[in-house]
Amino acid sequence: MDRSLAPANEPDADLPLAGVRVLDLSRILAGPWCAMVLGDLGAEVVKVEHPIRGDDTRDWGLRTGPTNTSYFDAVNRNKTSIGVDLSTPEGAALIRQMVREFDVVVENFKTGGADRLGLGYAALREENPGLIYCSITGYASDGPEAARPGYDLLVQGEAGLMALNGEAGQAPLKFGVAAVDLFTGQYAAQAVLAALYQRSRTGKGRRIELSLFDCGVAITSYYGLEALVQGKDPPRYGNAHPSIVPYGVFEAADGPLLITVGNNAQFHRFCTRVIERQELPGDARFATNLERSRNRAILIPVIEEELRKRSRSQLLQVLRQEGIPAGEVLGLHEALVSRRTEDSGMVARFEDGGATRWILAPPYRFDGCRLPVRSLPPPLQRE
Q: Which E.C. number(s) belong to this protein (predicted)?
């Protein structure tokens, strides 16, 4: 869907963070994601990059412009960019001067790196006492591994995430996207929003700290608690669910489909009206979800046998008629160009200097309207 852009950083009083100014000193993914979320919500975000090489991600992914790539574009919409060499006294002094006019700073230097540049919280608070300063590190800044650089893949392994991903018997497997980085950036944006709200009442700034490792542990969620309760790793279920049965990817006569039977009433309709096995709901082994989970090795083969007798279109029609959540398994490109995605407005297409640029839109809707892509990810601005 073609989109038109508002002038970069044009104030819009209807946007929730209109008037908030964010100085993005971060690079790669978690920090830029945090700043982009704030920009999506209406803040003016100025990204500070090295004037020659820019953000590392300008060299990652597929080229989308002279200084832009798909990776960079994915986390830097709704920002402008300036080139500043922070390692020079002049560059650091410029940032200290600029911060007087900003509400938020986001940085992800290695622990102690910002302080060595004269850009740590203590130094910038002297310039702006109401500043909200958000630091993202690999590991806790007061812990024994504070000096270690943090990378998503390392934390996925060290937090146990790779051990819960994939099929039983498979080697440890990372998530398809940098899940720890993305969650950390989202957590950071939430914390900044909370600090802005508090400052509106107290006038005081805050220092926020998040580490990739802490966020990696946090997103183990119910799997993490199950491991603690059992005193061992929970089984890996691949596309199935540890607690809900039947749930996952199943093969119809002509290909895969997704089925998620969420409660006992749905299970009854699934058995009697979809796969036409009237006896299954009355079997004590399958009467409740807890029992179905315990006896999945008996139940799932029966379900698989029945599903393979029917086409996907036939199954999806009946499943939807019966109010049982079900869907297709699409390729990534197929999903992004689907009618469903087009109707959602989640993919925006722009003509930029004679070239087509695609940008994923913010997922937020306020009062029925999706928040806009106000400016494309910026080109690198040389000094």
A: 2.8.3.-
| Three-class SS state of 240 | coil
Q: Which residues are catalytic?
A: 181
Residues recorded for the chain: 383
- Which parts of the chain fold into alpha helices (H)? 30-40, 70-74, 89-98, 113-116, 121-127, 152-158, 161-164, 179-202, 212-218, 221-230, 264-269, 289-294, 296-307, 312-321, 332-336, 339-344
Tokens of 264: 């006992």
Mean pLDDT by 10 residues, the chain (383 residues): 48 87 98 98 98 96 95 98 97 98 97 96 98 97 93 97 93 95 98 98 97 98 94 92 92 96 96 97 95 96 97 96 95 95 95 88 95 95 73
Structure tokens at 118: 């004269």
Q: How many Cβ atoms are within 10 Å of 382's Cβ, its own excluded?
A: 11
Residue 308, pLDDT score: 97
**Phi first, then psi: what are they for 49, rounded to 5°?**
-130, 160
- Cα separation of 324 and 273, whole Å? 11
